[in-house]
C-alpha cells in the first residue's frame, strides 16, 4: 500500500479551528471581547479635540496692587492724570482665564480697575490728552489682540453655527470692559484723529479684523460697534 500523503491545508482557518481558538481565548480574561465585536458596530465615544483660545505668555502669579481711587478729592489734576496712567499700565497685564481658579484676587482687582477707568471716562471731560494715547492703545492691544484658533466643533470638524454651540470667551468679563473703554475713547469729544493715526495703523486694523474669527457672539457684536 502506498504511504498516505499529508493533506494540503487550505489557506484560512476552518470552523473547527475557530472554535478551538475561541475556547483557548476564554481562558484569558478580557480576550473574549475580540470575538464579540460585530462588523457593523459603530463607536459612540468620541474624544473632544476642541482647542481653547490662544493667549499671551504668562509669567506666573501676578500681584495686582489696588491704587487710590481716581475720584479722590485730595488729588490734584496732575496727580489724577498720573494715577490714570498707572492704572492703564496695570491693566496691560493679561490673566490666564483658562485656569479659572488661579489669581482670583488679581482678576477681581483688575476688573474693578477697568470699571473705575470706564466710569471716570464717562464722568469727566478733558482727560484724554495727547500723552494718554500710547498708554491707552497699549492697554487695548494687550488685552484684545491674541491668536484666535480655527472654528471647529467638539470633534474637530468645521464649526457649523446652525448646529454647533459656539464657545464663549472665558476672559470676556475683562474684554467687555476693554471694548467699552475703547469705544468711549473713540466717541469722546476730546478724541483727536491726528493723535490717533500713528496707533490705528495697518497692523492694528488687521489684528482687529482678525478677531471676527472668534466664536463668541458677544465679542463679534462689540467689534461691529
Tell me what the structure shows.
The chain has nine helices and no strands. By secondary structure, it is mainly alpha-helical. The protein has helices spanning about 15-25, 35, 75-90, 105-125, 135-145, 170-185, 195, 200-210, 215-225. The protein is globular.
Task: Please outline the helices and strands.
Blueprint: H1 15-25, H2 33-36, H3 77-90, H4 104-123, H5 133-144, H6 172-187, H7 193-196, H8 202-210, H9 217-224
Q: What can be said about the biggest beta sheet? A: none
Quaternary assembly:
single chain
Strand content: under 5%
The total of beta strands comes to 0
- From the spread of the alpha carbons, the general shape counts as globular
Q: Give the low-confidence spans.
A: 5-10, 27-51
The overall pLDDT average reads 79
- State Rg: 31 Å
What order do the helices and strands follow?
A: HHHHHHHHH
How much helicity do the residues have?
40-55%
Organism: Coemansia furcata
Protein name: Serine/threonine-protein phosphatase 2A 56 kDa regulatory subunit delta isoform
